[in-house]
Write a structure and sequence with these properties.
alpha/beta, 12 helices, about 35% helix, globular
Length: about 425
């Protein structure tokens, strides 16, 4: 039996009973002959509660101290889990991200992993122990300060450790039984997917699917680490995410559409009255890039012949909206646009599937389903295996259900089960 990395989310360790249930599952894996490394998130909504507390104390907390605060949640989880495992008669050692050798850049609150040197983890495993690692955190290679990896960083920690330790699999335990064709909180008849390609999962994650984060999937694809998404609340098999189908290539073409994802965490900015000449778009997006803001969809209207002006719209995380507006206002004189419009009441719906590139009519069926549901489209973006549209936020749930049904993704069996989590 080889080495297994297991990651447990906040809903899996939300209380003492959950921690004891997780400890038993970990011990069972050890008894089955595996070396086990566990990455754990903060309990329940602890991270959100710490963020709320910080905002009450300071409207703009310093990045270094904010990271020091947020990493406390995972340290609580790892210590309690190690205690629960020892109570079951097995040895466990807990490690912070820095002790586990997770080396990052120096960007506080959204650091990126640049190296993993798990010497202490290997020593613990060689001594027959179970290693428990606090997810979501690391240490800066330059400043030696504690850093956090941003939302979903525990998944990335788990995959990075799996790659560094040459693990057989990285098991991501959550509050649903796997990856579904849509969010089961929105679509009760969503179907669990047995296997999905890393390519399709990347698109779903980038489009708003919450079960796995984009960085985690990209890391796993790069280092060819199979991910098994499972529920910590049941013993059912989950969803395998890998570069190659374990059942063989003959299964790949069966699914034209892998799933429907949605995202209501974005806002839209429209730059009105931009001179239609070379360099203007570059100046707009340079100002956004200099503010370290990631953007998603971009649409430029046709220039009005009478004025020579155009409008450019783009989407970005709501949390970055006001920072982007400030950056553009400062560059207004150099760019020469007329005004800015900000809209944070939008939602994005995405249809994902590698099979769509060889099946004509997918786009027409997608737009027809939205039309039949009375959903108006504001922006459109496509890739070879994805179609995304922006609509009103109030229309998102109905749009997702309509598209899911239109493409025959509804399950005929029991409804999907969400075992825990607040969805916050």
């Amino acid at each position: 039996m080889g080495l297994v990395v297991q990651k447990y989310g906040g809903s899996s360790v939300a209380d003492a009973e959950g921690i004891k249930r997780v400890a038993k599952r970990i011990v069972d894996a050890k008894k089955n002959g595996h070396q086990v490394v566990v990455v754990v998130s903060a309990m329940g909504d602890t991270t959100d509660e710490l963020i709320d507390l910080a905002e009450q104390v300071s409207p703009m907390p310093a990045g270094r101290e904010f990271d020091m605060l947020l990493t406390a949640g995972e340290r609580i989880s790892m210590a309690l889990l190690a205690m629960a495992i020892k109570n079951l008669g097995h040895e466990a050692q807990s490690f912070t991200g820095s002790q586990a050798g997770v080396i990052t850049d120096s960007v506080h609150n959204k650091a990126r992993i640049i190296d993993v040197t798990p010497g202490r983890i290997r020593t613990a495993l060689d001594e027959g122990n179970i290693a428990i690692v606090a997810g979501f955190q690391g240490v800066s290679a330059d400043s030696k300060d504690i850093t956090t990896l941003g939302r979903g960083g525990s998944d990335t920690t788990a995959v990075a450790l799996a790659a560094a330790l040459d693990a057989e699999v990285c098991e991501i335990y959550t509050d649903v039984d796997g990856v579904f064709t849509a969010d089961p909180r929105v679509v009760k008849k969503a179907r669990k997917i047995d296997w999905i390609s890393s390519e399709d999962m990347l698109e779903l994650a980038a489009s708003g699917s919450k079960v796995l984060l984009h960085r985690c999937v990209e890391y796993a694809r790069r280092y060819n680490i199979p991910i098994h998404v499972r529920s910590s609340f049941s013993g059912l098999p989950g969803t395998w995410v890998s570069n190659e189908n374990p059942q063989g290539d003959e299964q790949v073409e069966h699914a034209i559409i892998s799933g429907v994802a949605h995202d209501v965490s974005e806002a839209k900015i429209t730059v009105v009255g931009v001179p239609d000449k070379p360099g203007e778009a570059a100046a707009i997006f340079r100002a956004i890039a200099d503010a370290e803001i990631n953007i998603d969809m971009i649409v430029q209207n046709v220039s009005a012949a009478s004025t020579g002006l155009t409008d450019i719209s783009f989407t970005l995380p709501k949390t970055e909206g006001h920072k982007a507006i400030d950056a553009l206002e400062k560059a207004k004189g150099a760019i020469g646009f007329d005004s800015l419009r900000y809209d944070d009441q939008i939602g994005k719906i995405s249809l994902v599937g590698a099979g769509m590139k060889t099946n004509p009519g997918v786009t027409a069926s997608f737009f027809q389903a939205l039309s039949d549901a009375g959903v108006n489209i504001e922006l459109i973006s496509t890739s070879e295996i994805r179609i995304s549209v922006v609509t009103r936020q109030d229309d998102v749930n109905e749009a997702v259900r309509a598209v899911h049904t239109a493409f025959g993704l509804d399950s005929d069996s029991d409804e999907a089960v969400v075992y825990g989590g607040t969805g916050r």
